[in-house]
Write a structure and sequence with these properties.
The protein has 398 residues and is mostly beta strands. It has two helices and 18 strands.
Amino acid sequence: MKRTLLFSIMITSVAFAQNSPPAPQDQPAPPPAAPTALPTPAITGPLSNLPPATFEAGPFGKLAVNGVLSGYGLLQNNHVPGDDTKQADLSNGQVFIQKTDGWFQFYLQAGAYNIPDLGLPFVSTKDTISNLYGPLPVAFLKLQAGKNTSFLIGSLPTLIGAEYTFSFENMNVERGLLWNQENAINRGIQVNQTMGKFSASLSWNDGFYSNRYSWLSGSLAYTNGHHALSFVGGGNLGQTASQTYATPVQNNGSIYNAIYTYTKGSWIVQPYFQYSNVPTNAKIGVVKGASTTGGAILASYAFKHGFSLPVRWEYIASSGTAAQDAVNLLYGPGSTGTTLTVTPTFQQGGFFARGDVAWVHAGSFAPGAVFGPLGMNNNQVRVVGEIGFVFGNNVMKP
């Protein structure tokens, strides 16, 4: 009886061992996680960055490297004197080096860039670099003070607006009329805080690259699934008569945005509202202040095989009249602007090709302030093509 019972126990044990899962040490190791792109530089889409290449850099630890190289050409009608119907140049030749771990981090963005704008004359890449932010436009230290708290110090991307500065970051090749009212790069200090679905930033900076640290900017964003809502604002707490190509009269004003973003599947939809104001200040040459009020809708739909179609519509109106000697913020006091841009886009791996077909219409303009040899044509059409590559490390060997 005992032998029979023992034999039954042995048979049951063998059967159980054969049908049970292998011991943990016998299981194959899980495959390594696929590399992902970094959140900086920020890219709205439909273009996407690649995972970075990484290397050991001695005392700095592991650094990540990406880059972009692209060129563009344009055809336009009603060009202004000094411009031409045809233009071409390098749009981006930049490298991004960053340290993204530990309490001490940094970001460097160096190289050549061009910032084509709707409704404004073409500016060469060489002149863009020398007149704006130099060959190192963005460079900052990041102190990760806690899991949800960080401090940035240096030359920073602005918090203002829905569109980023450089062409590869945006849905469209050219920036829009609302973007022309905003600052792009400012130098200063910024604190970021994440609180669940809320994120907030506050920055003390030099506004429109004025080298006078009198601007206060801030943003508050709420994200829930496919939806995000942001409120952004900034303004100069002082005044200065100094103006340069990088520091226009808007540096003496304030600006506010309300931005909604919907992202799901193939869709990106981003409507936003903007208000800006430059107050009266005769001491700095603003005899009569003025404001702008505008709105835009940006949308992109991704098709199969790397094709997508972004579209942007804008409308902006400025206040004041020439009789009041109001400051000019657009195409003369009291003028308006409407734009429509369609940007067919293709990206496969690191290669991308896209083109803007854009129309700008000015209303209630001041004579000589718009397009054509005499500045009297209130419409301009542009066709822009951009071809380029983003670089990184998108291959993970098993």
